[in-house]
Design brief:
The chain is of the alpha+beta class and 182 residues long. The chain has two domains: 74 residues; 107 residues, Head domain of nucleotide exchange factor GrpE (Nucleotide Exchange Factor Grpe, Chain A, domain 2), CATH 2.30.22. It contains three helices and six strands; from the N terminus they run H-H-H-E-E-E-E-E-E. Helix 2 packs antiparallel against helix 3. The longest helix is centred in the N-terminal third of the chain and has 73 residues. The chain is rod-shaped, with a radius of gyration of 43 Å. Belongs to the GrpE family. Its main location: cytoplasm. Homodimer.
Length: 182
Amino acid sequence: MSNEKQVEDVVEETVDTEVQQEETVEESVEATLQTEIDQLKQQLEEQENRYVRLQADFDNFRRRSRLDAEAAQKYRAQSLVTDILPALDNFDRALQVNTEDENTKSVMKGVEMVYRQLVEALQKEGVEAIESVGKPFDPYEHQAVMQVEDEAYEPNTVVEELQKGYKLKDKIIRPAMVKVNQ
């Protein structure tokens, strides 16, 4: 019986050793799997963060594109208006000429009609003349080219407009050239 006992003990020790080895292998596999799971979770989190940032960038791009398109539509006439303003100034100067001759008066009447039509067309596009005389000087709307002393006006007030200024909707196309009271 002693041999049987020894054999049983050896078998038992071998089984225990194998069980311990299996447990060690299982623990090692579990540790490896847990490490892989942690790495995959980290990669997933990084990808989710990247996705969120890309989505935000895309939303910002769409918003900027929409705003640019709206601005382009809103100010589409800006270059045309800028090109037409010198002609409008020349019409203003022509209309200030006083004439006594009937032929010249009829020509001036025609010039005035063309001027009014041009002004109306520009107004339809949102162009407005900047009111200056008697208003406080505003460096965004006015370009001061002279200073005078006139007691009829308060200090820092526009006394005379030398060249009209214009704005397109809410954007200044050309500031008015003005004389300002000191």
